[in-house]
Amino acid sequence: MDDISQVIAGNLKELREQRRLSLDRVAELTGVSKSMLGQIERGESNPTIQTIWKMANGLKVSLTTLIDRNTPETVVVKRSTVSPAGGNDGKIQIYPVFPFDPEKRFEVINLELSSGAYSPSEPHADGAEEYLMVLEGDMNVTVGGEVYALEAGDAIRYRADQSHAYSRSDEAPTLTKACMVIVY
User: Fold this and answer.
1) Cα separation of 124 and 81, whole Å?
2) How many angstroms separate the Cα of 32 from the Cα of each of 19, 55, 76, 130?
3) The domain that contains 30 carries what CATH number?
4) Quick one: a GO cellular component term (predicted)?
């Protein structure tokens, strides 16, 4: 069974079970035979787009409800599963907690900056924005030539479609931790 057939099979079965519908009732609602629905649910049949539309219309759901992979409502990301990307001679660690999702159009990144860290960033796509909150320590964010000094608990939002940079002084003894959301 190919991948899309598995997705449709799982989504159809889950939908039918959530609504407590028998195959007979789904057949009545959709105009797709009970035997065909059974084959689809078991992944034994690769339904045509017309059949998928009939099922979606009969069940009063969107087409994508049947053909998209279900994503869990809750996702836990353990720190130990996120590999950091280092920069600035290891003085900056970037942890992509929730990597860019093209549907949601944002990503969430944790930053750790040691003393003396400096990381310039090229402008992102037009209209991109960054939301940054300092969780521990202090840091500077430079946007459009202006420097903003931030401490634990401070937050900043800025257009990221211009040059910007993150830095810490050489004298800062503690590690700075921050969380950033980039919206594209």
Assistant:
1) 27
2) 17, 7, 39, 49
3) 1.10.260.40
4) cytosol
Per residue in 114-156, pLDDT (tens digit) is 999 999 998 999 999 999 999 999 999 999 999 999 999 999 9
Select from 94, 9, 92 the least CA-distant residue to 52: 9
Residue 74 included in any domain:
no
Over residues 83-116, the pLDDT tens digits come to 888 766 788 999 999 988 777 889 999 999 999 9
pTM of the predicted model as reported, rounded to 2 decimal places: 0.65
Output the six-digit token pair for 69: 């992979």
Q: Give the range of the structural domain holding residue 143, as residue numbers without chain letter.
A: 79-183
Residue 72 lies in a domain: no
User: In terms of Cα–Cα distance, which of 104, 99, 105, 160 is closest to 132?
Assistant: 160
Instruction: With beta carbons less than 8 A apart as the criterion, state whether 96 and 180 touch.
Output: no
Domain shared by 83 and 171, yes or no: yes
As a whole number of angstroms, the distance between CA 50 and CA 82 comes to 42
